[in-house]
Specification:
Strand order of the largest sheet: 2-1-3-5-6-4
Number of strands: 12
Strand content: 15-25%
Structural class: alpha/beta
Bound molecules: NADP nicotinamide-adenine-dinucleotide phosphate
Distance between the termini: 50 Å
Order of helices and strands: EHEHEHEHEEHEHEHEEEHEHH
Helix content: 25-40%
Number of helices: 10
Low-confidence stretches: none
Largest sheet: 6 strands, mixed
Radius of gyration: 19 Å
């Protein structure tokens, strides 16, 4: 049996993962709280084999990102009920013989939004029907919102709306109703991706609560439009921060140093074009 001799090792696995800000955020948290651990990033392309290998070398805990979240859930020895409902895990904790999993993405989005506004009874539109959208829908419903889902592939959004007992609207018909919040959960607007908006910019109105899960760039085309229209805006970096804080708390059973983690993220993004 091989295992780290001095410090516990934590890491994020993903593909691609080179752009991940989790290492700077988590290493700052470990340092701030004097945790005897370090946090790395591993490019991984085979969920099952790579998780087995990481267990064998004694990794203590993992953050899991695209495209491993669903497959990681399937190989966990234990998974909490929330992650099962969402259908994905983003956090793994080592057990003697395998991995225990949970999902903190839903907490990330709820806590990020709650910093800016009350969520209860808010009529929210979720754009997207992938893994992030599932966590967002779960979190918004838990927080007492009314939720409508729209997506490029309508069948997927329709199925999700049925599963979560919320409403569906076709992407071309989103202007048929007034929403007081919107969370965008697709890669559109991300660096290297399409720059267009999936919803008409006329959807944004003063006081509406708008978040983009994309955080590179920090000020996505969607968030810029929302800010111009007088909306309350929340960046994807806030979601990353709060889902990471919840991971830290699950691993270490103590409060996360959120302010230090936030500073680490902001430092890492300094110099990138956010305007
Ligand atoms: P995913 O499971 O692959 O789902 C992607 C979603 O985006 C699907 O609904 C897909 O629609 C839609 N989509 C993809 N390309 C599109 C395009 N060109 N036009 C219209 N719709 C498109 O991915 P995910 O895990 O949900 O992640 C979505 C985004 O959220 C990513 O950018 C990710 O980086 C971000 N995210 C951020 C955080 C954070 O902490 N800030 C956490 C998780 C994810 P179809 O169903 O039609 O394919």
């Amino acid at each position: 049996m091989i295992k780290p001799a001095q410090r516990a090792i934590y890491a994020v696995i993903g593909d691609p993962v080179g752009h991940s800000l989790s290492p700077v955020m988590m290493n700052r948290a470990f340092q701030e709280e004097s945790c005897p651990a370090c946090y790395l990033a591993f490019q991984a392309n085979d969920t099952v084999a790579d998780l087995q290998l990481l267990h064998q070398v004694g990794i203590s805990g993992l953050s899991v990102t695209i495209p491993h979240k669903e497959a990681a859930l399937r190989i966990c020895e234990q998974v909490d009920a929330t992650a099962k409902t969402i259908g994905a895990v983003n956090t793994l904790q080592r057990t003697v013989s395998g991995w225990q999993g949970c999902n903190t993405d839903w907490l990330g989005v709820v806590r990020a939004l709650q910093q800016k506004a009350r969520l209860e009874s808010r009529n929210m539109l979720v754009v997207g029907a992938g893994g992030a959208a599932r966590a967002v829908v779960y979190g918004l419903l838990k927080a007492g919102c009314r939720v409508t889902i729209t997506n490029r592939s309508p069948d997927k959004a329709l199925r999700m709306a049925e599963e979560f007992h919320c409403r569906f609207v076709a992407l071309g018909e989103v202007m048929g109703q007034r929403y007081d919040g919107l969370v965008h959960c697709t890669p559109v607007g991300m660096v290297g991706n399409e720059e267009r908006l999936l919803v008409p910019k006329e959807i944004f109105a003063p006081g509406m609560l708008v978040m983009d899960a994309v955080y590179r760039p920090l000020w996505t085309p969607l968030l810029k439009c929302a800010a111009d229209a007088g909306c309350i805006t929340v960046t994807g970096l806030e979601m990353l921060l709060y889902q990471g804080a919840a991971q830290f708390e699950w691993w270490w059973k103590k409060k996360a140093p959120v302010a230090a983690m936030k500073r680490a993220l902001e430092d890492a993004l300094k110099g990138e074009d956010h305007a």
